[in-house]
Structure formats: C-alpha cells, structure tokens
Amino acid sequence: MTEWFDMGKYGLYVWSSYGLFALMLLWDLLWPWWKGRSLRQQILHRARREHARQQSTSELPLP
Amino acid sequence: MNPIVRWFHQLGSPPYFYWFAGRAMPWFYGAALPMLLWGVWTALYVVPVDYQQGDSYRILFIHVPAAWMSLFIYFVMCVNAFIALVWRIKLSELLAMHSAPLGAAFTLLTLLTGSLWGKPMWGTWWTWDARLTSELVLLFLYLGVMGLYAAIEDRRSAARAAGFLALIGIINVPIVHFSVEWWNTLHQGATIKLFGRSSMDPSMIAPLIALAFATKLWFLGSLLARTRVALVEAEIGKEWVRESLVNPKATRGESA
After folding, report:
1. pLDDT at B193
2. Collapsing DSSP states into helix, strand and coil, what is residue B52?
3. ipTM of predicted assembly, 2 dp
4. pLDDT tens-digit profile of B41-94?
5. Chains A, B: CB contacts under 8 A, how many?
6. By CA distance, what is A44's nearest residue in B?
7. CA-to-CA distance for B109 and A17, rounded, in angstroms?
8. Residues B204, A8: contact at Cβ < 8 Å?
9. Nearest by CB: B58 against A7, A36, A39
10. How far apart are CA B154 and CA B243, in angstroms?
11. CB–CB contact A13 B54 (8 Å)
12. Where does B18-246 sit in CATH, by number?
C-alpha cells in the first residue's frame, strides 16, 4: 500500500495532480448549488416582504 | 413544424429550459461519475508503469483530458456566442458566458498538472515553449471573456461584447492544437490520433478515453446547472421564476 502511495518516488506530483482535479470538480459542483440557494433566499425574502405589504395595506381603514 | 426544430425553439424559452435542465442535469452527472471513478481507479492502480517515465506518467490521465476540455469548451463557447450574436437568443448568451468558468478551470488544471509533470520529467516547472505559451494565452482569453462580461452593467450588452471577444480569440484554438507541429517544442506531439495509429498501449488508452468522455459529460451537466441558475438571476422579477421556486412541482413552464 505504501508503495502505491509512493508512486515510485513521484507520489507528490501524481497525487497533487489528482487532488487538484478533485478540488476543481468539487468547486464546479458546489458553485451552482450555492448560487441557486442564495437566489432562492433572495426571491423568498422578496415574496414575503411583498406579502406583508399587501397584508398591512388591506388592514388600513377605507377612506 | 418538424418536432426536433420545434423542440429547439421550445428550449429557447427560459421557463422550459429551466425545467428541462433540472431534469437532464442529474443524468449527465450520473453518467459521468462512474466513468470518472473507473477511469481514475484504472489510471492510478491498474495500468502498468511506463518503461521510461515510471509512475509519473499517470498524470497524463488528468492532464490530457483536461487539455482536450480546455479546447472543447472554448469551441462550445464560441458556437453559442456566434448564435447569440447573429440571432440574439438570450439563452445562447448565457450558455456561452457560463461555459467560460469551467473552461478556465480546465485550462488552469492543464497548466498546473503539466507543471507537476514537467518538474520531474523535464526538470522545470515552466518553459516559454509554443504549446505552454499558447495554452496560457487560452487561459487569459477565458479570463478576458469572464472579466468583460462582469465589467459591463447591462447584462445583454456585456454578453455581446464578451461573446465577440471569445470569437476573435478562437484563432488561438488551432494554434494550441498545432503548436507541437509548427514549432520545435519541448512538449511532445500527439500520442492519441483520431485517424491513424496511436503510439500508446491499448491498456492505457481505455482509462484515457473513459476520462475524456466523463469530463465531457460532466461539463454538459455543469453547463446546464450553471445556465439554469443564471436564468433565474436574469429573470428574477418574472412570474415563472417565483412560481417555479415557491412551488417547484408546478412545472414545464407553460405559464410563460
């Protein structure tokens, strides 16, 4: 097993290449998810505020 | 109308694309992942050691697919930028602009893994050689497209300007590809040939092909995911966005 990690003394170069690849894929997977989540919160926040405004205006006494 | 043509027209509609991308995306990732895992496993564990380069050549299985992707994504970006400029299709603008980040990431990965391979084999992290320099120019082109897109306030004129820059930059794609033939470089020539004999052992070709396909499928899944989110951002005030986010089950975007 240690032999496998050593990669015939090229371990550092080989494993860091594969590590960078994994990091890149992870970043790529998380970015749209994270961005979508923040947009969803923004939209829900806006919808709630609008709803609250409608509620408060309907409670006002008619002139 | 021909059903395929009609489907293409329908795909241009933001609510429909949002629905479609949401359904198709998991399939792309789902198909890419097992191929990716098999490819990495085979590349690291199964294939034999190279008689000249020892284990260091295992970097090839990341470096070469990443390099292919850096050019492939640039091409996809340009096709979309061209459609966006000629027919003014908003979806194509977004597809072009959201190809760029992953393209830049693959280009950077190519340069970094190349560097990590170059150090033990050539004795240097970097050299101003035709292949390396043209790949670096490719990275700057991606960054230029992303920077220009981010710098202009109006999203649609930003996409048009950045798309135009992308189209001018396509001249670099054949330069990257043929640099090893046109100039005397330290970088080796193509080992894998689409036409003619490849100078690589068949047992080593299998994981390389698997990773090349896996990265392509992954890119398609990622492009759908990114464009889907970008579409929500672009149309944030619209009714379909609110409907599909507040009530995600009401689908197919037929309201718009």
Report:
1. 67
2. coil
3. 0.88
4. 999 988 888 888 888 889 999 999 999 999 999 999 999 999 999 999 889 999
5. 89
6. B246
7. 8
8. no
9. A7
10. 25
11. no
12. 1.20.120
